[in-house]
Fold:
Amino acid sequence: MRMRGDFARLIPRLRPHALARELLVKAARVKGVERPCAVDATAGLGEDSLLLAAAGFEVDLYERDPVICELLRDALLRAESQGELAHLVARMHLHEDDSMVALRVLNEGGARPDVVFLDPMFPARQKSALVKKKFQLIHRIEAPASDEDELLAAALAARPRKVVIKRPPKGPFLAGRKPSHSVVGKAVRYDVIVPPPQA
Structure:
């Protein structure tokens, strides 16, 4: 199976009328911030980050697997030459790094993101036909996160305004942490944790 990131196929979802209906955009929206910044701590192929960039976020993408990171880098480079995407991918900054380390460094350096987005990947389903082929391949390369407690702790340590977590609609809360609220669709749920204000 050949695998290649393709942001062009997302263009219809990036247009304003469609973007406003995206559940991730609704969950991540930050009021009163002119140029919000987000950390995508589990970047994968970067499609969620592209939605955030289209919604006006500056996005730092962290991907620790070198193969997936190279696929994402290739997709970003090709998108730079596409008129409808170039200005969006200019807001996306890729880092081949472990986000759990990077998030704690952000906290120490005082660089507070507005949103930390986590997509630790859904647990494998019994019927593999239900999972798209590209996600089957990603699961082979990089297994779903097993260090959920550490991942969420690192996200909260960065002191964001909110943490947004992608989950299956009926799946358990990440690390057992009940969210402040959820944005729920037929195929996915976004749990939003709003930490208490810090001095």
Q: What stands out?
A: Residues 162 and 194 are 5 Å apart (CA to CA). The radius of gyration is 16 Å.
